[in-house]
Amino acid sequence: MNFAEKVALITGAGSGIGRQTALRFAEMGASVVVADLNADSGEETVRLLQETKAEGLFVACDVSAPKDVANLMEQTANRFGRLDCAVNNAGVSGPWERLESYPRDGWDKVLAVNLSGVFYCLQEEIRRMREQEAGCIVNIASIAGKQGLPNQAAYTASKHGVIGLTRVAAQEVAKHNIRVNAVCPVYTRTPLFDPLIVDNPRRAEKMLERIPMRRFGQTQDIANAIVWLCSEQSSFMTGQAVNVDGGMTA
Fold this sequence. Notes:
The chain contains 7 helices and 7 strands; from the N terminus they run βαβαβαβαβαβααβ. With 250 residues, the protein is of the alpha/beta class.
């Protein structure tokens, strides 16, 4: 898996799965565009990339704002002239609440970031990649895109939507030598997930009981799958939603 002279873009790369994926691409020789809403964490990711001698660029981006996404793609093109791999990772978890009392502002925010954000990014990424007649895109879905998670109505709906977008995009752009896949992680130790379990050991225990391998995912587990899906080793795969879940959905 050699990504020398390739350009990879990762949204939500300021921490968690996004940061680990950025570092993994850098290890494989890629130049990396780091997009995040938080400038401090995004710049920190770029600093870590530079420690590995990789070239990195930070762009502040709210994926729920189409103008931000367009600017992200423009800055990527201005700096590197191409886009080979895109990972649409930015997301939020939303409130932990039963459906009948789920706050509507929480619903709107989760769908805006997790689903509309992926839609806006796909539009811009596909336009750039069609010019090259090549590219790979990985959308970060979730096991919540394969089954329902109680008390997480908005998150579950958004991740089902991400898998649907992945399948539509894959069919539309395959003739342009562009592949589009999704990764569906199980509960993974990230700044987004940890607040759900740190002060609630009973919840953590119940979650672990559902995972046959009896551990939570680690960011490197997910990053390895993402980079593989962007590599030539998976060159005949598109439109897939790949579980990285310790056997949970089995």
